[in-house]
Amino acid sequence: MKQLVSNLKGDKGIWSFVALLALFSFMPVFSASSNLAYIGQGNGNTLGYLVKHIVHICIGFTIIFMVHKVPYHYFKAVSKGALYIVWVLLAYTLIKGTVIAGANASRWIQVPFIGVTFQTSTLAAMVLFIFVARYLSKTREIPISFKSSIWELWLPVFITLIFILPANFSTTALIFSMVLMLVFIGKYPLRYIGIVVGSGIVFLAFFILVAKAFPDAFPNRVDTWISRIDNFTSDKPDEDDYQIEKAKIAIASGKIYGLGPGKSVQKNFLPQSSSDFIFAIIVEEYGLIGGLGVLTLYLLLLFRFVIASHKANSLFGKLVVVGLGFPMIFQAMVNMAVAVELLPVTGQTLPLISSGGSSIWMTCFALGIIISVTKKEEEIAQELKDAAKREEALQKLIDRELEEEEVVAENYSIEDKAKNPMHAVLNK
C-alpha cells in the first residue's frame, strides 16, 4: 500500500477528497438501489448493484492513475481532432437514441460487444473545454479579433451545443455556462462575450419556437425539458413534482442526525434514488450533518482546484484545471439544488457518488488530466529543488577547494621563509 501511494503523483489533496467521495458513495448506493432491485430482480437484493458500483469506481481510479501519467499538453495537441470525432458520436446519439428503463435515452449509445451504455455529452463537454483552453492559450500574446474568434472558437462551440440541445437542455446550459466562465478567465474581451450571450439567447428562443410549432420534429425529447421548465414555474402536478415531493420528504425526515445508514424510507418511492436524487437519500439517512459533510468535501475539492490552477506553470494548464474541475463542482451544486427544489429537474448526477458507469469514468478521466497538471508542477518544483541542491553542493566543493589552496599557499610560505637565510637574519 505504501508503495502504491508513493506512485501517486500530483496534488495529494485532490487524490484524498476524490477517494473520500468515492468511498462514501458505497453506502448510499447500496441503500438507494433497493427499488431498482425490486423492479429488476423482484427480490430486493442490492448486493449486485453495490458490486457493480464498486467495479465502476475501481475502473474509474484505474483511469485516473493511467491518465495522470500522461503529460497534460498531449491533450492540447489532440483536442481539435477529438472534437470532430465527438460531433460524429453526438449526431449518432441524436439519431439512434434508444429506450432505457422506460425513459427516453437519446443521450446514450450502446457500446458494441460489451453492452455498456455511454453518454456522449460528457465526453463532448470534456473535449470542448480542452479545445477552448487550447484556443485561449494560443491567442494569449495576440490581440483577439471577434471575426476570427467566431470561426476558430464559437462555431465549434455552437456546433457541439446544437447536437446536445434537443436531447439534453440542462447539460447544454451547463456546458455553455462553463465555456463563458472559461473565456472570461482567459481574458476574452467582455464586449465579445456579451454579443455571444445575446446570440445564444436569440438562438434558444428561435429553437423553442420551432419546437413548439413542429412538436413531432424531436419526439419525446424537446417536449421533456420544455415541460420541466413550464411545470417548475407553475403549480401543475406531474411526475417531476412527485419526485421533488418525495425528495423533500426524505430531506425533512433526516433532520439533524438522520435515520441511520440503510434506513431510508423514500428510497422505495423515488424512481432515481441512486442517481439523480441520491443526495436526498444521503440527507435522510445521515441527516443535515451528512449532507453538509458531502457539500464540504466538494467545496474542499473546489479549493484544491483553485490552488492547482493558481500554481500551474502555463496558461493552458490553468485553464484546463478550471475547465475540467469547476464543472464537476457546479454539477454537484445543481444536483443538490434540484433535490431541495431550487432548480427544475435536470437529470444531473452527483459526481463520484451517484451510481453509473460512463459518467463516473468521464469524471475520473477529467480528474486524471487535472492531476497530470499538478504533477507537472511538482516535477518543476522538484527540478528547481534539485538544481538548488546541486548548486549548493557545487558551492561547498568550490569553497573547500579554495580553503585547501589557501592552506597550501600558507604552508608553502612558511617553508619558503624557513629556508631563506636572509629572512632569519632580518628576524634577529
Automatic annotation (TrEMBL):
Entry GO MF terms: lipid-linked peptidoglycan transporter activity; peptidoglycan glycosyltransferase activity
Principal cellular location given in the protein's record: membrane
Known catalytic reactions: [GlcNAc-(1->4)-Mur2Ac(oyl-L-Ala-gamma-D-Glu-L-Lys-D-Ala-D-Ala)](n)-di-trans,octa-cis-undecaprenyl diphosphate + beta-D-GlcNAc-(1->4)-Mur2Ac(oyl-L-Ala-gamma-D-Glu-L-Lys-D-Ala-D-Ala)-di-trans,octa-cis-undecaprenyl diphosphate = [GlcNAc-(1->4)-Mur2Ac(oyl-L-Ala-gamma-D-Glu-L-Lys-D-Ala-D-Ala)](n+1)-di-trans,octa-cis-undecaprenyl diphosphate + di-trans,octa-cis-undecaprenyl diphosphate + H(+)
Listed EC numbers: 2.4.99.28
Record bears the keyword Membrane: yes
Gene Ontology BP annotations: cell division; peptidoglycan biosynthetic process; regulation of cell shape
Source organism, top-level taxon: Bacteria
Residue ranges of coiled coil: 374-404
GO cellular component: cell division site; plasma membrane
Record's keyword annotation contains Plastid: no
Ranges that cross the membrane: 14-38, 50-70, 82-101, 113-133, 153-185, 192-214, 277-303, 315-340, 352-373
Topology term for the membrane: Multi-pass membrane protein
Subcellular localization, as worded in the UniProt entry: Membrane
Keywords, sorted A to Z: Cell shape, Coiled coil, Glycosyltransferase, Membrane, Peptidoglycan synthesis, Transferase, Transmembrane, Transmembrane helix
Record-stated family: Belongs to the SEDS family. FtsW subfamily.
Protein name as it appears in the record: Probable peptidoglycan glycosyltransferase FtsW
Gene source species: Flavobacterium yafengii
